[in-house]
């Protein structure tokens, strides 16, 4: 049996050593972690316009991704009224970086509607055509889902989408990210009807939506996740309406 | 001959029959998952895709081996009254190292695995080996025992993941083999032989891991008679 003094000493020394090593490691790796996270988030945005890019974005190096963001993408932040905010307003909203890419959509969702701010990325293609990438967030079956929606220069037709999720079931709900054929259905659909009213894109259970302008097929076995995508698009895209309408 | 064996024993780093047994025993006769039935929770959770299972297996091999090594080196100093807490600190330390490293090396995989990497701390295999082996054996033997148990866990994990990914999604390591769509090697829409094939969605759900483990135990026991309880 060891004495209490020995045990105390042992535990103190041990925890101090462990804490110091971990703190050192965490501090040392922090720049790499931050960079990885930034590139990961940027690739998520690029995945919405994957087929508009030259080359495969999944194979791009970190610098190439950063290069596209520096050269071809302008990022702006808007509020509920569609007004473009300056970086001081973004900092005031709780993002010290002050840029659109610093915005945490899941954090924004918890705010009241009038306080929310939204990132918008404008990608300019080599031929001068502009694509607008909007970010949306919602709830799946188990946890949050989110996505980036790219609109063509008419601010109506969808050029591409990319969704991601925190914990949907692999093979079922997770198909919103993994099943490229399902994701590709969104291309060419439009979010406004002919009168210019906002209708969003519905995820329909019944299927047979190929020729409908405002609907896509659901996913077998993932009704709740698909409904989540449906609600996310309807709520999320509506927030961008003032901005989309304003500059038309 | 006699002289060399004596020399080897003195160095303490010899690799003889006993040492090999430490490495190979957990692969079959004393497998942590199929024989001791430990570490089942992570075996269910991270085996939907093969690449996830491989990363998890590497992480567990690292943690069991080094947790065993550190615990064994400290075993004469660790006060018996608080040994469990001390072991837990060692495991938590190593798991945090793995987590930080993975976050720096492969961020997308870290994103997919994150919570399960953290849960290695509560993986009964690690704690079990520290308490049962590392507290009573020297550092070299403990390290081998840790490696062996990590491999024993990893090999089952990889087998389950390969079965689940192939039958559930028709792919291995995300290389698409069989399914409906032109990106698959065998496209069930056009193939004459495999037109009937449908991936089994049950395989990507958690219960299927239970069935697969059960079947693996069954196969192992019908082949390895040592494991069958005679009474």
UniProtKB/TrEMBL annotation, chain A:
It comes from the Bacteria. InterPro entries: FMN-bd (IPR007329), NqrC (IPR010204). The chain crosses the membrane at residues 6-27. This is Na(+)-translocating NADH-quinone reductase subunit C. It is an enzyme of class 7 (translocase). NQR complex catalyzes the reduction of ubiquinone-1 to ubiquinol by two successive reactions, coupled with the transport of Na(+) ions from the cytoplasm to the periplasm. NqrA to NqrE are probably involved in the second step, the conversion of ubisemiquinone to ubiquinol. It catalyses: a ubiquinone + n Na(+)(in) + NADH + H(+) = a ubiquinol + n Na(+)(out) + NAD(+). Its cofactor is FMN. The keyword Cell inner membrane applies. The modification FMN phosphoryl threonine is found at residue 223. It is a single-pass membrane protein. Composed of six subunits; NqrA, NqrB, NqrC, NqrD, NqrE and NqrF. One of its GO terms (biological process) is sodium ion transport. HAMAP family: NqrC. Residues 140-240 form the FMN-binding domain. Belongs to the NqrC family. One of its GO terms (cellular component) is plasma membrane. Keywords: Cell inner membrane, Cell membrane, Flavoprotein, FMN, Ion transport, Membrane, NAD, Phosphoprotein, Sodium, Sodium transport, Translocase, Transmembrane, Transmembrane helix, Transport, Ubiquinone. It is found in: Cell membrane. GO terms for molecular function: FMN binding; oxidoreductase activity, acting on NAD(P)H, quinone or similar compound as acceptor. Its EC number is 7.2.1.1.
Automatic annotation (TrEMBL), chain B:
The keyword Ion transport applies. Keywords: Cell inner membrane, Cell membrane, Ion transport, Membrane, NAD, Sodium, Sodium transport, Translocase, Transmembrane, Transmembrane helix, Transport, Ubiquinone. One of its GO terms (cellular component) is endomembrane system. InterPro entries: NqrD, NqrDE/RnfAE. GO terms for molecular function: oxidoreductase activity, acting on NAD(P)H, quinone or similar compound as acceptor. Composed of six subunits; NqrA, NqrB, NqrC, NqrD, NqrE and NqrF. This is Na(+)-translocating NADH-quinone reductase subunit D.
């Amino acid at each position: 049996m060891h004495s209490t003094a020995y045990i105390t000493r042992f535990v103190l020394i041990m925890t101090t050593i462990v804490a110091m090593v971990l703190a050192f490691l965490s501090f040392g790796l922090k720049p790499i972690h931050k960079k990885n996270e930034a590139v990961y988030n940027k690739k998520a945005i690029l995945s919405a316009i994957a087929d508009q890019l030259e080359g495969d974005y999944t194979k791009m190096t970190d610098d190439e991704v950063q290069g596209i963001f520096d050269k071809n993408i302008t990022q702006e932040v808007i509020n509920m009224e569609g007004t473009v905010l300056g970086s001081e307003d973004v900092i005031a909203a709780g993002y010290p970086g002050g840029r659109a890419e610093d915005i945490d959509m899941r954090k924004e969702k918890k705010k009241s509607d009038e306080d929310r701010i939204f990132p918008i990325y404008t990608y300019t293609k080599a031929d001068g055509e502009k694509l607008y990438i909007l970010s949306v967030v919602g709830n799946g079956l188990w946890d949050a889902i989110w996505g980036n929606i790219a609109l063509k220069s008419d601010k109506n037709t969808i050029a591409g989408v990319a969704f991601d999720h925190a914990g949907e079931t692999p093979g079922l709900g997770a198909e919103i990210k993994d099943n490229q054929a399902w994701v590709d259905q969104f291309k060419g659909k439009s979010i406004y009807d002919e009168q210019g009213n906002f209708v969003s894109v519905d995820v329909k259970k019944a299927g047979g939506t190929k020729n409908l302008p405002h609907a896509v097929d659901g996913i077998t076995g993932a009704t709740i996740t698909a409904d989540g995508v449906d609600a996310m698009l309807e709520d999320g895209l509506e927030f961008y309406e003032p901005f989309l309408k304003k500059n038309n | 001959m006699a002289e060399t064996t004596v020399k080897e024993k003195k160095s303490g780093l010899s690799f003889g029959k006993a040492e090999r047994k430490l490495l190979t025993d957990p692969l079959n006769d004393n497998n942590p998952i199929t024989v001791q039935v430990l570490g089942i929770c992570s075996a269910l959770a991270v085996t939907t895709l093969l690449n996830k299972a491989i990363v998890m297996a590497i992480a567990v091999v690292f943690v069991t081996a080094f947790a065993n090594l550190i615990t064994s080196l400290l075993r004469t100093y660790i006060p018996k009254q608080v040994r469990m807490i001390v072991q837990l600190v060692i495991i938590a330390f190593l798991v945090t190292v793995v987590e930080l490293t993975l976050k720096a090396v492969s961020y997308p995989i870290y994103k997919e695995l994150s919570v399960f990497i953290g849960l290695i701390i509560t993986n009964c295999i690690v704690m079990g080996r520290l308490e049962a082996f590392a507290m009573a054996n020297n550092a070299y033997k403990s390290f081998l025992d840790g490696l062996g148990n990590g491999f024993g866990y990893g090999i089952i994990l990889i087998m389950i993941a390969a079965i689940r990914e192939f039958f559930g999604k028709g792919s291995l390591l995300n290389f698409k083999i069989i399914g409906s769509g032109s990106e698959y090697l065998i496209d069930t829409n056009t193939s004459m032989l495999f037109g009937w094939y449908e991936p089994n969605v049950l395989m990507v759900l958690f219960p299927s891991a239970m069935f697969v483990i059960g079947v693996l135990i069954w196969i192992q026991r019908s082949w390895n008679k040592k494991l069958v309880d005679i009474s």
